Amino acid sequence: MKKNLIIGVLVVISILSITFGYNQKERADLNEEKALENAILAGEAELRAQEQMKISEAHERRAEANLKDAIRQREIAEKNYKKSKSK
Question: Secondary structure of 21-41 in the HEC alphabet?
């Protein structure tokens, strides 16, 4: 009798362990799929970030060129003002 009870308990524990293990495997497979999707999204985001960086650098170069032009134009305006003032 005791032997049958022990065997019954071990069978129940085995079934529970197998069920738990299968559930864990399913969750692990799902997490792996999500991880792969996230890796793809991260790669796409990195490419977009690099493109935005290039655009930002181009804007920065344009802004620097505009600043230089503005400084030159101010100098020309100051010279013209001084010339017109001296007349």
Answer: HHHHHHHHHHHHHHHHHHHHH
Q: What is the pLDDT of residues 41-60, one digit of tens each?
A: 999 999 999 999 999 999 99
Query: Please, which residues have CB within 8 angstroms of residue 77's CB and are 6 or more apart in sequence?
Result: none
Token pair recorded at residue 26: 């399913």
Contacts of 33 (CB under 8 A, 6+ apart): none
The amino acid that residue 49 corresponds to is A
Q: What is the reported pTM?
A: 0.60
Residue 40 tokens read as: 């793809």
